[in-house]
């Protein structure tokens, strides 16, 4: 009788463990296909994203699914690898085929028309550094022109040129930690 109880208990335990591994496997596959997490390690996206090193920086969840169905939109924060392989986040300002410049009021001008940013980031002003120095007009061609929110301290398209669509990992979606910074990233 004890042997039969042990056999039933052992069978249930094996099924539970098996089902647990299946759930974990499905969860990991879903995460790998749809999400990416990374730490903000510079202040170039302040005040939207904060961080100075890997220990204190915002942990950001990037979703990879939406760009399978649509292109990145202006003002979205995108995640992509920099030339040194580090994953970074910047705000899309110029779209493929557009011409960008920054006027004297430090406002972004696309194809000769000043842009009005969403109210959440209306206070941002960009500095005309790099390839936008002296009211130079820059052709985005087939790439996305990205800028950091703290434009005084951002290694972005002004210095590295546009990023191609195939370089973009996804759309920065939410800040997961620290708790005081919880929230959505994009306007």
What does this structure look like?
- The protein has about 190 residues and is an alpha+beta fold.
- It has a single domain, classed as Umud Fragment, subunit A (Ribbon), CATH 2.10.109.
- Helix content is about 20%, strand content about 25%.
- It contains two helices and eleven strands, in the order αβββββββββαββ.
- The chain has helices at about 1-35, 155-160, and strands at about 35-40, 60-65, 75-80, 85-95, 100, 110, 115, 140, 145, 170-175, 185.
- The strands form two sheets. Strands 1, 2, 3, 4, 9, 10 and 11 form a seven-stranded antiparallel beta sheet that branches.
- Strand 10 (about 170-175) and strand 11 form a beta hairpin.
- The longest helix has about 35 residues, at about 1-35.
- It is elongated.
- The model has no long low-confidence stretch (mean pLDDT about 90).
């Amino acid at each position: 009788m004890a042997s039969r109880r042990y056999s039933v208990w052992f069978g249930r335990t094996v099924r539970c463990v098996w089902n647990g591994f299946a759930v974990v496997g499905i969860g990991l596959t879903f995460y790998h296909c749809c999400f990416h997490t990374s730490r903000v390690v510079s202040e170039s996206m302040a005040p939207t994203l904060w961080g100075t090193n890997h220990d204190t920086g915002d942990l950001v969840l990037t979703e990879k699914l939406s760009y399978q169905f649509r292109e990145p939109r202006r003002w979205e924060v995108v995640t992509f690898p920099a030339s040194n392989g580090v994953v970074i986040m910047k705000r899309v300002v110029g779209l493929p085929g557009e011409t960008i410049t920054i006027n004297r009021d430090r406002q972004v001008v696309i194809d000769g028309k000043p842009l009005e940013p969403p109210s959440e980031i209306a206070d941002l002003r960009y500095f005309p550094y790099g390839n936008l120095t002296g009211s130079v007009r820059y052709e985005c061609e087939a790439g996305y022109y990205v800028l950091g929110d703290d434009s005084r301290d951002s290694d972005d398209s002004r210095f590295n040129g546009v990023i191609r669509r195939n370089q973009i990992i996804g759309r920065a979606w939410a800040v997961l930690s620290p708790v005081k910074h919880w929230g959505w990233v994009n306007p």
